[in-house]
Amino acid sequence: MKSIRSRLLAWLLSSLLLAGLLASAVTYYQAREDVNDLFDFHLRQIAASFGNHRLPQPVDLRDAGNLGGEGDEEGDWVVQIWRNDGTPIYGSQPGPLLPRYPERGLSTRSWKDKDWRVYATTWRDRTIQVAQPLDVRRETAAAVAFRVLIPVLLLIPILGIVIRISVGRALRPLDEIGASLKRRGAAALAPLPERDLPDEAVPLVEALNDLLSRLGESMEVQRRFVADAAHELRTPLTAVQLQLQLVERASSAEEREAELVQLERGVQRAIHLVRQLLTMARVEPDAVREPPEPVALEEPVNAVIAEYAPIAVDRNIDLGLARSEPATVTGYPADLRIMLGNLVDNAIRFTPSGGRIDLRLSLRGKDAVLEVEDTGPGIPPEDRDRVFDRFYRRHGGATQGSGLGLAIVKSIVDRHGGRISLDAGGRGRGLKVTVTLDSNP
Length: 441
What we know:
Layout: H1 4-49, E1 78-83, E2 88-91, E3 105-110, E4 115-123, E5 126-133, H2 134-170, H3 172-183, H4 202-249, H5 253-282, E6 293-296, H6 298-314, E7 318-324, E8 328-331, H7 333-350, E9 356-364, E10 367-374, H8 405-415, E11 419-424, E12 431-438
Parallel strand pairs: 7-9
Antiparallel strand pairs: 1-2, 1-5, 3-4, 4-5, 6-8, 9-10, 10-12, 11-12
Helix pairs in contact: 1-2, 4-5, 6-7, 7-8
């Protein structure tokens, strides 16, 4: 693909050349019209100059100036005079001359493979006919046009140089922007200067600065995420290492068995944390994904209930769907299932044995509403906003998780343009999580 500079130069120089050609054609045709008018006037004047003179013998037109006629040394004019009875009495040039034409006034004739401009008039007892070859007029018009166009032809290369320099200077800000970006390192995300820029370059620079700003925010989020993840992984991995040392130091089979149980729990916590970290990275707003599609919420709800039902049974918890209405939203099926899975997983973790977890799917106007309500300890009102922060854990909680479950849920809800709220469960017990999404018509 050609550069903008090359395209501009090609278009401008082509336009300049085309304008020169058009100007040449217009100048030539206009000069020809003017020359025709001038020479037609000369034909009439020459005819009038021969009106009152006696002409005993033919004379050359070069001598006709004494009679008031005009000519040139090449004999461009042909003057012929006849009596009214048709007897020729004068010819400006020796040899065969043009035939006598009966029409009076100006006309164009062809004779002996040449075009002539002829003027005929009657003066008393004689007919005067003055003729001129059209080639003379064309050559004169071309000469006049060429003399007029010489300055234009000389200006074309000069203007071409000026245009090239002007285009180069006009595009210099773009070159400077490109050079500035090339000199930057991968972490240099400072905005580009927007002062002293041409109006056409301002939208480009503004868009680049907006991109750099969003890229900086994304990189900052990733840096914080990596730092927090490293910090959070350090504790469970250190615990696993200590528990492994305790297993090695165990002095009896019973003690070794107990330490192995603790080691297994530590490994499971580390595995759960890594899975949550990977899930969080997957649902980040800048993550690459397929286009959204219509999703019937009954499918992920039923799939999550079927997946977590054995775990709920093992912990003696009643998990089920209390209400279900058909609802379809536009979104990402895998993400919606992750969101529901985290809500149910959190509910199972914090609901004591013998408790209950109810899922409800309903429609409220154009919104699809999903509720997950449990009979666990709930979340105090002062902590309900903070639990959506990454790695936040409430002090005194009975179950220690990764602190990422509700952060993942919040990220998925935001990506789908929905809302999430935390309230106390029925009769002020437990926790009710309400997710509201826009439903398709």
